[in-house]
Amino acid sequence: xxxxxxxxxxxxxxxxxxxxxxxxxxxxxxxxxxxxxxxxxxxxxxxxxxxxxxxxxxxxxxxxxxxxxxxxxxxxxxxxxxxxxxxxxxxxxxxxxxxxxxxxxxxxxxxxxxxxxxxxxxxxxxxxxxxxxxxxxxxxxxxxxxxxxxxxxxxxxxxxxxxxxxxxxxxxxxxxxxxxxxxxxx
Length: 186
Ligand code: PAN
Ligand code: ZN
Fold this sequence. Notes:
With 186 residues, the protein is mainly beta. The protein contains two helices and 15 strands. The protein has helices spanning 36-45, 158-163; strands at residues 7-8, 15-16, 20-25, 49-56, 63-70, 74-75, 78-79, 94-100, 103-109, 114-119, 124-127, 131-137, 143-150, 167-172, 175-180. Strand 1 and strand 2 form a beta hairpin. The longest helix is centred in the N-terminal third of the chain and has 10 residues, at 36-45. The mean pLDDT is 97. The chain binds 5-phospho-D-arabinohydroxamic acid (PAN) and zinc ion. The site of zinc ion has 5 residues, from loops.
């Protein structure tokens, strides 16, 4: 393990050097957005990358970091969003530091409390252990943020795949609004 300076491009989310990279496309989100007709119509036009994640992990370290770059877009009135997850380890927190763009971080505790934290340059969002977190690009430009957590934090996607989250972030009169999720299966 050697000290390393990692260059992060605040506009593109590029990370150099990096040790991992993946992209998520709209087609992987069937059933995540509540407007199925809008989802099918969007997918019939194209299958865009909705976000990508690049990481830097030093061998043997207990922490790692990287970027998530979320492209702007909507399915019906819902903005493009991440899958959302709890950490597999319930004692692991995380920090999201926004570099560019604008969005909302939607969080939900195990006992069902919902919170949001604004995502915009200059704001580091603290995600406490055992709070589910989903990021949402509410703007018209890419939303780029740096995340940092423990390597062993892990991802538990199951609860949100099965039930959804209690709240949705939708566009209302051109503005983001947090509303109750009528499809929540809790
Ligand atoms: C982030 C997220 C990343 C993508 O690195 O994994 O933003 O979001 P989903 O994993 O919910 O699709 C993080 O929170 N890691 O723990
Ligand atoms: Zn996380």
